[in-house]
Design a protein that fits this description.
Elements (H helix, E strand, L loop, with lengths): L2 H11 L5 H12 L10 H13 L9 E8 L15 H10 L4 H8 L2 E9 L10 E2 L17 H20 L4 E7 L3 H12 L16 H18 L6 H8 L2 H15 L4 E3 L2 H13 L7 E3 L8 H8 L15 H19 L3 H4 L5
Parallel strand pairs: 1-2, 1-4, 2-3, 4-5, 5-6
Length: 352
């Protein structure tokens, strides 16, 4: 079976969530000692989790954030406030437990899986999952970021990472990433798949000034013009203007869906992966939980295009999976409320 056939096999495994179990969760929720719907999005999360897993109140206590790392050739165009050397430095920070996502993952009792899928430097660490396909993508401003075959290979790596974690008992995933230049790639993907001009999708990323922002917009415009991605073909878009870590996250999302696991989507870069995943599988979005609304321009419209509503708005733009891991606590709260609250009958409370 070649890579494309393997990907198609994964996509065929992604089915619609269990509607009957989701409705049973809603009925249970409506009998708890509260006005129906009064817990808002928390009730929706509980219903969604039941539909995804096929269990009324699933145990999602074993969870992981997958941090995909890769470099971007478009950094040669001067679109970031930080040099490309920061990517491998931050990967080592993740592996040594010192990054923001590590702190939040420890608080949420989550495993951090750090994957080198395309960092430009060679890295060694006992905790590193080394799956390097390229030493960074090519410069998308002058040509294709990667081949179609490489993009599919990266997606399959993400799927495999999830499969391995599921075998260890992991039942919920979060998407994380690291790669200087990846907001540029994400803006290009968003422009194409959400139908927005680059001035509405390009943000400040690492904190660039006004002059660099205008330059970054032009680079995204040029990248789209040079590569002419097919908006009806998510893999074509991904290969021409995407990133290896973004492609890896597409695989994480699809792998989670194929294994009936919720996947919590982080910020702009993760959402760029999410829209590609949603184009590859019509059911994939039903397995996604949008964690927060990033400060990055275009993120809100991107989520809207996928059909997702963020749980939080904290003015974050760090990435790494930080917003997604924060939402593990909200998901825990949603499930605990449904499991531990009394019903009107058990509490002797009148409904009317």
């Amino acid at each position: 079976m070649d890579a494309d056939e393997r990907l198609q096999a994964v996509l065929k495994r992604i089915e619609a969530p269990n509607k009957e179990m989701a409705e049973e969760a809603k009925r249970r929720s409506d009998h708890l000692t509260k006005p129906p719907g009064s817990l808002g999005k928390l009730e929706h999360i509980a219903k969604q989790a039941a539909g995804i897993t096929g269990e009324l109140w699933p145990d999602l206590s074993k969870r992981a954030v997958v941090v995909m790392a890769g470099d971007h050739g478009v950094c040669a165009e001067g679109i970031s406030a930080f040099p490309q050397e920061v990517t491998p430095q931050m990967v080592m920070n993740f592996l040594n437990g010192g990054a923001a996502v590590n702190v939040l993952a420890r608080q949420a009792s989550a495993e951090v899986i750090c994957v080198d899928i395309g960092v430009a430097e060679e890295l060694e660490h006992p905790k590193l999952v080394s799956r390097k396909l390229m030493k960074g993508t090519s410069n998308m401003a002058v040509g294709t970021a990667m081949s179609r075959e490489t993009a599919i290979a990266a997606i399959l790596i993400g799927v495999a990472i999830v499969e391995e974690a599921v075998e260890r008992g992991v039942r919920m995933f979060a998407t994380g990433e690291m790669g200087i230049g990846n907001t540029t790639a994400s803006a290009a993907i968003t422009s194409i798949l959400a139908g927005l001009p680059p001035e509405h999708t390009v943000g400040r990323g690492t904190g660039i000034d006004d002059e660099t922002l205008l330059h970054k917009i032009k680079i995204v415009e040029r990248s789209i013009a040079v590569n002419r991605p097919d908006s009806d073909d998510g893999i074509d878009v991904l290969s021409k203007v995407g990133g290896l870590e973004i492609a890896g996250l597409v695989g994480v999302i699809l792998g989670a869906a194929a294994n009936r696991c919720p996947v919590v989507i982080d910020g702009y870069i993760s959402s760029a992966a999410a829209i590609v995943a949603s184009r590859l599988s019509s059911h994939a979005h039903a397995y996604m939980i949008a964690s927060h609304l990033s400060q990055e321009k275009g993120h809100g419209k991107l989520l809207e295009t996928i059909g997702l509503t963020p749980l939080l708005q904290l003015d974050m733009r760090l990435g790494e999976g930080t917003g997604a891991v924060l939402c593990f606590h909200l998901i825990d709260a949603a499930l605990l409320l449904m499991q531990e609250m009394a019903t009107f009958d058990s509490a002797g409370v009148s409904k009317q």
